[in-house]
Every structure is written in C-alpha cells, then in structure tokens.
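FORM 7B: Structural annotation worksheet

SECTION A. Query
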Amino acid sequence: MLKILLFVLLGALAALAVHDLVQRRHSLLRNYPLLGHLRFALEALRPEIQQYFIERNFDGRPFDRDTRSIVYQRAKGTDAEEPFGTELDLYRAGSEYLTPSMAPRPVRTDPPRVRIGGPECTQPYDMALLNVSAMSFGSLSGNAVLALNTGARLGGFAHDTGEGGLSQYHLGPGGDLIWEIGTGYFGCRTDDGDFDARQFAEKAAHEQVKCVSLKISQGAKPGIGGVLPGAKVNAEIAEVRGVPQGRTVISPPYHRVYSTPRELVRFLARMRELAGGKPVGFKLCVGSRREFLAVCKAMLEEKTTPDFIVVDGAEGGTGAAPLEFADNVGLPLGEGLMTVHNALVGTGLRDRVRIGASGKVATGSDLVKRLLQGADYTNAARAMMFAIGCIQAQRCHTNACPVGVATQDARRARAVDVDDKSRRVARYQEATVKSALQIMAAMGVDGPSGLRPHQLVQRVDPHTVRSYAELHDWLAPGQLLASPPEGWASDWRAADPDRFTD
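SECTION B. Predicted structure
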C-alpha cells in the first residue's frame, strides 16, 4: 500500500513538473519546475509572517499592533495599559503631542453630545463624539452589521449605513442611523439608476433614520465609482439596493443630481425637505480647496447650508481601492479637516454646519487631535471592525474574510456572534470617549469647546517644535468676505459657485 501511495505521489509530482516546463504563464516555473511553487507559497504567507513575526508593535500598517491591541482590550473590557514607557521615538520629525496643563480639570462623567441641525433643520440630532462610520451591508456580512447596530443602540451612538442601502440588519436592532446615499442611489433609485424622491422620502421618514448623508467621495478612492459583480448580487442584496438580482451593478464616479456647486447646495436643501426636516449633509475626501470654497460661495448665495459635512481622509478605509488612488489621491484627514473648518469660518458659516471626521480614528488621542483640527465629532470604521473581531487580514474584497466580518459567505459570517460582539462595540466606544475626556481634562479643559490649536504640537526637526497655531493658518470669522489673507486670496477669487473645475 505504501509503495502505491509513493508511486502516485511521484507520478503527480512528475506530471506537475512537466506542466511547469511547458506552460507559458510563469517564467519562474519554466526554469525551476516544482521548486518555483515554494516561492508562491511563501508569498501567500508573507502578510501573516510580516504581521505576526516581523513588524514591531508601533510600525505596522495600516494600523499598528499597539493600536489594534488598544481596541481589542477596550472591546473586551480589559485594561488598555502598558508598562515601562513608550516605544516611540519622540524626537522623530513629524511626531505630535498634546499639551498637558499644570492645572488639570476633573474628568467629565457625562459624555458631551453635538447638536446636528442648522436653522433650516426641524428635527435636530444630538451626535456622540464617536460613532460607527460608513460600511455597507454587502461589503460587511449581515451578522457584522447586526453587531454594529446593536452596539450603537446599547451605547447610544450613531451608525452610518454606508451607500449600500437600508437593510433589515440596520433596521432590526433599533440603533440610530445615518442613511448614506451614494452615486448609485441604492434604496432610492429608479430603474435607470437615477434618484427616486418618493422612495427616499418614504425611507427617510423611518424613526431610526436620524440624519441623511450624500456621499460625494470617500477617502480610499476619491473620484472613482465601484462595481458589484453580478455573482455577488443575491436576492437579499438586490432587494436592499433596488437592483436586479444577478446583474452587475455599477456605481458611477459622479452624481446625476448635480453638476455645479449651486446645484449641490440646492439638492441638499431638497433632501432635507423630503426627509421632513431631518439633518442633511455630505461626505467628501477633500481635494481642491478652490472647489470647496465654490461650494461655500454657493451656500452664501443660495442662503442655505447643509447641517453637517463629514471629512474623509485619504488614509483610506474599509473599501478596496486601486493602490494608486489609495497612495496618491486626496488630502489626509488632518489637512482636509483644517481646510473645511477654515473655509466655513472664513465665510461666516461655521456656526451653521457641524463637521465630522472619518479616517483612522481608533484611540482617545486620535479623537482629541481631530477635534483640535476642526472636527465636532468623529466616526470610526476599521476600529469598529476590530471591535467585532477583524484581524486586519486585508482580504475584505475577496469574500474570504477569515473572521466573518467582511464577507457574504454564510459559513464564514456565522463566526460573528452578534450578542457578544455588539457588547464589545458598545464597550469600545464608551472606553474610547472616556479616554478622550481624560486627555482633555489633563489638558486643562472641560470638554471639546475648550480645545485650541496651540494645544497640539508637532516636532518639525529634532531640535524644533511648533504648535498647530503656528504651523497653520486659522481664519477669523468672516475673514474671507472682508479681507482674504494672502494664502487664501487667489483660491477665493477663482472659486465659482456655478462650476467646479477651473
């Protein structure tokens, strides 16, 4: 019997070697039959070897081990503390620190909320400092969405649906929702892919929908759309998105509902009216400052503003994207936040519009830094995925997520225990907001309203540090209308409310 098995094995190896020699696809195998397969096996294992055996605690990407560990520990309710001091090089150029005060304040026990709703909003919403960022059903499994929304209900914070539509997994648990509408208008689209006002009004009236957001672009891939292959469009996803089952669905890179800044502003006002006065806003990864200033001019001329703007960072997110876009297109979150904040301040509109920050927010210090850079509140996607079991395998786009978070494979998705993971989401959010409030108290402020740019300091070189107040321009209220500073003047003059491009 052993001889037979050995004969079969040798025969199979011989057949594989012959195949390697005659095939034309892989040059390596033609020159190194059999042995060349070892290289492919090692390459497949490389990400796991890198993450578990080679990378240090603080230099992994996109999220290092220290950050992932903090999220896991807080989600489990264990102490997120480390002995023996930092492993970071605090003298490295670009490193940042928050300034502690010699007169710290007591830590707040009541987490502050942010009122979302400008003068035209009749149903304002009080947003938590940290919420679940946009992730669609279809990208995430049903169990993952259930866990996130149940966690949002338990913790009293909001859950952004992503652009994939309102599903039973969003609506079932009862958590507060921000309904995101993308270029595909999923859940409120006509048969030919246009915006359907009737469907939108019906679904926006749902009690759980607290805000509605129009997605202009996302950090991972600003300026391009998406393709959902027909093989993934099962009956459930087809019903949620309002598309034919089994047919490939394309989300275009552009919106049909507007083509100019003025049309965008008018459409946002229409959305708010259709939504019965609920808060309406838009999400973007900032690119051209001139284009955003054109939107501000349109707001001024139309005498209407959105209730909120979510700034997504070019650091990317849960969505898979071409490497060239992920690495080279769009502003990082910090610069995007400061651009939007200063533009609204300079045009006298900041008190009407709240700003959300979405991109690599995982810890209390991340949250505080984003507030200092101009945000009013934050949203987290990948950190929330960590809280429900994500291990950063980076296979979100393959339908082969090893922990059942980013997949539609029912066998894999069953790994997400909704009851357990939802409690982890709530614990993680609560502990992270508590950490942010502890940091603010150490800085000598009672809450977000006391934060100022000079309290965030960046090391410019090994011998020089500068505060954000020194490194960046911070406009005074209405300054662009009265006397634009030199660094903003040319963009302000060129900004046109009736066109985006120069």
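SECTION C. Observations
Residues 308 and 354 are 4 Å apart (CA to CA). The two ends are 78 Å apart (CA to CA).

SECTION D. Sign-off
Analyst initials: ____
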